[in-house]
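Sat 14:20. Reprocessing the chain from the morning session after the first attempt stalled halfway. Input below, unchanged.
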Amino acid sequence: MPVQVGDYSWQQTEAAVFLSLPLRGVSARDADVFCTENYLKVNFPPFLFEVFLYAPIDDASSKAKIGNDTVIFTLYKKEAAMWEALSMPRVDKETKQKIREKSILQAQQTAQEAAEAKATARREDQKYTLTVMMKIEEDERKKIEDMKENERRKATKELEVWKECQKKDEKQKPIPREEKLCQQRKQTKEERKKLKHETVTRNSTFRHHATKGRNAEDIFVEALQETSIPAPRSVGSIKVSFTPRVFPTALRESQVAEEEEWLHKQAEARRAMNTDIPEFCDLKEEEKNPDWLKEKGNKLFATENYLAAINAYNLAIRLNNKIPLLYLNRAACHLKLKNLHKAIEDSSKALELLTPPVTDNANARMKAHVRRGTAFCRLELYVEGLQDYEAALKIDPANEIVQRDAERIRNIIQGTEANSYD
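Finished this time. Tokens:
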């Protein structure tokens, strides 16, 4: 049975009451204070102090300060007046029990109203965040559509200008193409006749070089014909050879089969896109790409907009539920929002998809173990959290941050450090 405390002192003004209560060597963190408008109780085992107040007080604005083995209360009166005593006179047990029960019900109702108000505020914040994100996305979509429309108009205008220039060029050509070719042929014939005439004149002057002159004329004409028409290009082929992929490990330690299986799984996962879902009919092609949605979620995570990032990862997972990085990144968002059970589920799903364990997915597996271990520790399941941290250290033994966190968890389990984990 608790020991009732009667050693206290109090003072008052018309607006407030100042009450000083000694703790008698009890630790301040062990003191439990309960206060309503008509009832005040301080429980610090094995001692108990309770008082049924003379008049109602404003328990919302009243204060309690604990320090130096003393609790000092500042109780503000609802009605300004001087009290004859601190507690109500001549209160029987039945009346006391009724006041206690009424105070507990009042405190429960106040706590419930505060929780509902907090939940309502949280819902309003989420609704506002979603509205803002939708507005930003709508503005971005409209901006992109305007840019496309401007580019289309610009291209149409340039095409019309080009067509006008082509029409003007055709009007400025008085000679058709066929007539121009005929003129070029006539000019070539006249030049050949002129050259032949000069050669004949030269042969009449030098008759003893007649034969050579005729040969020279033939050579010159052939050379002229060869230089006027270029020879066709020779046909060739280009050979391209690809070197096979070489894994850096020795053959006896090689994970070629596992590596190829992992790459094959990733390729199949990216090809298996469920774009036939009715809700996705209004989306653009780029918005139906899980990789594009993953990058969008990463950008939102970097700006600390974790709810919008989760929405992006959710949509990507609905399109393709075989990509482990989507679950891994969503687990990081849940950790930031303190959705610890969801963080554990997403980390476990990521580890399930990160098989077989190969070099390409080692970093992702290490992150999944660390995030799941962090969620376990925040739930005060330190043994399970330590197991995940040790699994992460097996993958990356040189990681100093993981080593330090694992050592801290061991100290908490052994009781050499306070049971708190952030």
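The CA atoms of residues 294 and 313 lie 6 Å apart.
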